[in-house]
Amino acid sequence: MRFDVDTYREIADSLVRNKSRSLLTGFGVFWGIFMLLFLIGGGQGLRQLITSNFEGFATNTAVVVPMATTKAWKGMKEGRSWDMTYTDIERFRRMIPELETVTPLLSRWGQEAVNGSNTVEANVKGVYADYSKIEEPRMKYGRYINDSDVAQERKVCVIGKRIYTSLFPGGGDPCGSMIKVGPVYYQVVGVDFSAGNMNINGSADEAVVVPLPLVQKIYHFGNDIGLLCVTGKPGIKMSTLEDRMRQIMAREHNFDPSDKNAMLIINTEQMFAIVDNLFTGLNFLIWLVGLGTILAGIIGVSNIMMVTVKERTTEIGIRRAIGATPRDILSQIILESISLTMVAGSFGIVFAVQLLRLLEKIVNARPDAVPVDFQIGFWTAIAAVALLTLLGVVAGLAPAYRAMAIKPVDAMRDE
Amino acid sequence: MLIELKDVNKTYYGAQPLHVLKGINLSIDKGEFVSIMGASGSGKSTLLNILGILDNYDTGEYYIDGRLIKGLSEKQAADYRNHLIGFIFQSFNLIGFKTAVENVELPLFYQGVSRAKRHTLAMEYLDRLGLAGWAGHYPNEMSGGQKQRVAIARALITNPKIILADEPTGALDSKTSEEVMQLLGELNREEGVTIIVVTHESGVANCTDKIVHIKDGIIGRIEDNREHRASMFGTDTIMK
Question: Does A386 lie in the same domain as A277?
Fold first, then answer.
């Protein structure tokens, strides 16, 4: 290949000579690369948007909920309800060492929270300090409930975003203020802005989180611990522990271990698996559609190059007669094909990047949005350019071989 | 001898095999101005293609300056065409989207000569053929005679050993035909360029110094025509 300014001028000339043809052919490639990149970026953004719903939620978490039995067992009728007790916490910790956190959650719905003249309906949640391992709080102000709060049964609370905006419409740090929730006054020690949409017993937005013993006493829960939330140690799959949890509880609370409805185990792992599968499928579609569109564009380029070669038989013959080697002709045609795909494809990349930027702006402009990243990565763009070059060569190959087969004699015959 | 053909045979294998050249023996010396004359179908175009290394022959031997031209690879053939032979075609065969000077430059481009150098050289040759003012013009803006002169400049620029002209006046009127032939004659006399013209016009052949008659694939008479009296049509002008 000769590296000469004229080589490139000639390519530019021959592409510009058939303006509308080059434009229409290039559009196929443009649209293909645009589709692929836009779909990749869009898919990635969508995934982030959806997984942001699980934000702050440990990925291998399960929630154990006692329900009414549905099978008769040891002389007891079905439909009997049962509660988990404080000893069950220790029982789980001892008997299932694979569990990292075992923590109860007591809640009471529909409590009125009051600060001066502002009121809002709140959901009181009683937790131990390690509950933060289950639903990770994102503290806007202050701190979360800690061990001393629980031990000393301090009347302190952490409020969710909606509670905060309703009770403190003026904004600012509310820590230290007293609010009344239900019958009791609590001191606000923190504001939790966690944005996840996956919650246990009501959204974190509308929750007033207080030390668990307070809830137990104020609302007369007695020995009942409500729900039990557990997380596995790293690498442990919750689904492998489900059966053992069921066995232990069945023995303790006298229900049929095969009665799956008596004890509900909500396992986040399954939800993540569903989302994962969804996106695996979506990604497959994205690549199928994107690559398919590019392929159609490339076939268009190849076709047009074929026509061009046919049209230029005489010219190529003349070139051959005055000393162009077959290689010269080959590289000329392939370079033309690469140039066409590269120029059109580059516009596609730029257009996709701009549109994704716009989309990102619009999506992230939603109030209280978790920032989502729609933009394709730098290396994705580089890979796209490499792909274009490769496709340019592939598109030029067949026409170039046809051009190479043109004999110089053809220049004189074609009159 | 610059060109030597020894018993060259060529057959086209189609539905009916066609024996086009039947043992051609021909020698052309350096600095000669020769025409190969024959009717259409006489095999003169085939002979020209073989002389120009545009086509292969079946048996025999063809030497240019002592080099055997046989069974060359495409690359080698292209290289020989580029360095040894300059072509002038009936239909000029200039590239339409290139200017005159770009057309003249093209053989040097394939030799890998630098841009600046080939441009200067091309301008020099155009100037010699009186076309310096037309360098930036496209072929369709020029007359037939001008186009053929651009083609001649393109043939000369590599300083080839042989100029092969295939019906160089075929698309020109009689006046320009005469001018082109005179130009070729001058190039031959003043610069010693070896020129072979293939034609069926006796008037054109009459402008050359030696006329080789070819008929039915065999070389017939070889006339010495230094007096330029071979054709009654060619004495004053080229009859069209």
Answer: yes
Q: Report the C-alpha gap between A286 and A207 in whole angstroms.
A: 39
What span, in angstroms and rounded, lies between the C-alpha atoms of A85 and A79?
Answer: 19
B52 touches chain A (CB under 8 A): yes
Query: Across the A/B interface, how many CB contacts are shorter than 8 Å?
Result: 70
Cβ–Cβ gap B81/A14 under 8 Å: no
Cβ–Cβ gap B154/A322 under 8 Å? yes
Domain assignment present for A9: yes
- CB of A308 within 8 Å of a chain B CB? The answer is no
Beta strands A118-127 and B3-12 are unpaired
State whether A5 and B115 contact (CB < 8 Å): yes
Q: Which residue of B has its CA nearest to A411?
A: B93
pLDDT, tens digit, 9 for 90 and up, residues B21-76: 898 999 999 999 999 988 888 888 889 889 999 888 999 999 998 889 888 888 88
Using an 8 Å CB-CB cutoff, list chain A residues near B101. Answer: none
Residues A165 and A248 in one domain: yes
pLDDT tens, residue by residue, A156-182: 999 999 899 999 998 889 999 999 998
Q: Please state whether beta strands A118-127 and A207-211 pair in parallel, antiparallel, or not at all (unpaired).
A: parallel
ipTM of the predicted structure?
A: 0.87
- Interface membership of A89 toward B (CB under 8 Å): no
Residue B4, judged by CB atoms within 10 A of its CB (0-12, 13-18, 19+), counts as middle
Each residue's pLDDT tens digit, A61-93: 888 999 988 888 888 888 888 889 999 999 999
Q: For residue A210, give its domain range.
A: 83-253
- Give the helix/strand (H/E) hosting A392: helix A378-404
Decide if B74 touches A, using CB distance below 8 A. Answer: yes
| Count of structural domains within chain A | 2
